[in-house]
Amino acid sequence: MVATPIQTESFKLGFIGAGKMAESIARGVVQSGVLPPQRISTAIHSNPNRGIAFQSLGITVHSHNNDVVEACDVIIFSVKPQVVKKVVLELKPLLSKKKLLVSIAAGVKLKDLEEWAGHGRFIRVMPNTPSAVGMAASVMSLGGSATEQDGELVSKLFGSVGKIWTADEKLFDAVTGLSGSGPAYIYLAIEALADGGVAAGLPRDLALGLASQTVLGAASMAVQSGKHPGQLKDDVTSPGGTTIAGIHELEKNGFRGTLMNAVVAAAKRSQELSKT
């Protein structure tokens, strides 16, 4: 059976799970104009503050997940990985092939999601926490019955909170190690740069501001310039200057190897967790 195309000009979006990531995605979708808030809904079961957060965006808040599924064409499962099976199985009678299903639950494979839902019109997406400021790095993988149009629609939704790529699901553990866990590595780097500034005599507030803006500016250069990071590094590094002295110190202490090992270790741990 061919999947019924989603009417992109009138579809309704529902969130099963109303946590911070769901709120970030919903906020991006509304603020970017991808969807008006009247076509988005979620359900709140226990924490009224979560309902207030969504209602402040103009989003409809129901009392039950069933109401969200019945009202919507595209359903994003944004619950914790350990409860996603229970939630999908509870809603299975309502999850017809007419509905496009999306999961952002880390470590939960498409084959399991498809089995629980009873069909393969599922797309798995891995966003990361910078979704909260519209700077996410997300990756998606399409299930067996998801169409190219389904993928385009999901790209548009998640593109409202950053950038999104498509990749084979077998790469998702590596994605977790890099973009999923990566923000934490960068926060450590920002903190360390700021501490270095303080050690060199800067006031704490100035050091932290300079460190954060420097990382943001360097990342923007890497994205926008089209140059290889090595070339950008060479552009800053004059012979016998200050920058090469600092880089020499980083290389002596295995800076690049340490970051590489962090990504590989996190990817390995993701692989272990997905088997439990």
Automatic annotation (TrEMBL):
Residues 12-107 form the Pyrroline-5-carboxylate reductase catalytic N-terminal domain. Residues 169-273 form the Pyrroline-5-carboxylate reductase dimerisation domain. The keyword Cytoplasm applies. Pathway: Amino-acid biosynthesis; L-proline biosynthesis; L-proline from L-glutamate 5-semialdehyde: step 1/1. Its EC number is 1.5.1.2. NADPH binds at residue 65. This is Pyrroline-5-carboxylate reductase. It comes from Hibiscus trionum (Flower of an hour).
